[in-house]
Design a protein that fits this description.
This protein has one domain: Nucleotidyltransferase, domain 5 (2-Layer Sandwich). 35% of the residues lie in helices and 18% in strands. A 5-stranded mixed beta sheet has the order 3-2-1-4-5, sandwiched between helices. Helix 1 packs across helix 5. It is globular.
């Protein structure tokens, strides 16, 4: 029996078949939906249970999940520019902490990535939307089950 969380499953799919395929070094996958999930990969190998949504951003009293989940965008009726600003703040913090080569954004909102992912959001890290979008978790779970 194999057990992994939804964000790890989504990341596994993206690293094997999607936007992270063939990327050496550190890859971080982030799912934005009801919450915020994340996967951490080192040279294609999963480092389980990142729980990136539980990070605190400097100057904030709530965890990231209560600040940048797509659910929060809806609840607080943030326009896309306001949401993009929050996502940028979060991603720059991740870039600073983990120094990834690539950050892949997936989850329920990934189909609307053009509205909140902008060129130049990050200084050193390649930022891309998930190739498999919101289907990545299902694909990753199947990969894990087969292995």
């Amino acid at each position: 029996m194999t057990i992994l969380n939804d964000a790890d499953a989504a990341g596994l799919a993206e690293v094997r078949f999607g936007a992270g395929k063939g990327v050496a070094g550190v890859v971080v996958t982030i799912t934005l939906g009801t919450g915020v999930g994340g996967g951490l990969f080192m040279d294609g190998r999963l480092v389980s249970n990142l729980e990136i949504g539980k990070l605190y951003l400097p100057g904030h009293d709530e965890v990231v999940e209560q600040y940048v989940a797509s659910r929060i965008r809806d609840e607080e009726t943030l326009d896309w520019a306001e949401y993009a600003s929050r996502v940028t703040e979060f991603l720059r913090h991740v870039e600073h902490l983990l120094s990834p080569q690539t950050i892949i954004i997936g989850g329920g909102i990934s189909g609307k990535h053009r509205k909140f992912l902008q060129p130049g959001m990050l200084e050193r890290t390649r930022l891309v939307p998930a190739s498999l979008r919101n289907e990545a978790g299902i694909v990753g779970a199947a990969i894990a089950a087969c292995e």
